[in-house]
Amino acid sequence: MAKLLLVCGLVVLGFALTCYAATTYTVGGNSGWDISTDLPTWVSDKKFVVGDVLWFQYSSSNSVNQVTKENYEGCNTTKVVKSYTGGNTTVTLTRPGDWYFVSGNKLYCLGGMKLQVPVQGNQLSYAPASAPQSSTEGLGPSSLPNPSSKSDIPTSGGLGIHGGSDHHVLVVSMLGTLAAMLWM
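The structure assignment produced for this chain is given below.
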């Protein structure tokens, strides 16, 4: 019985080692979602995975539109997948692939205020492929930081599964070997 508990404990430990805290990225860093922000440079050194969160901070006179690739390339602000307003918007990346966002102001979009986010899937599980939901639902305004407190430092949020199948196989193999050695 003790050996069975040990094996179960090692399996749970293996899964715990492949978990990560989802990262919340403040889009544009210190500049936020703004016409002055160099969004292609901001996104270039980041690795987005399913479960991560994009946090858009912008003035209340602006907006964020999630769009298709075609509408991203042409800065079409009328045919949108989802539109966000209000100055504080979070979007959870629920599926792998490219995500496209543009300013609700077409002139701003033409000026470069648009964002393509390449999202990598993880090999262990995906969230269902659906339109992203705003995670600000149920949160009062007092629970969100003031837009003037923008930061380029990613923060951790909820728990998710991360890592490719190679990492997972390595961890499980090591734990299996350890369990077999202890079983004997």
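Interim note for the steering committee: The first helix runs from residue 2 to 17. Residues 122 and 163 are 6 Å apart (CA to CA).
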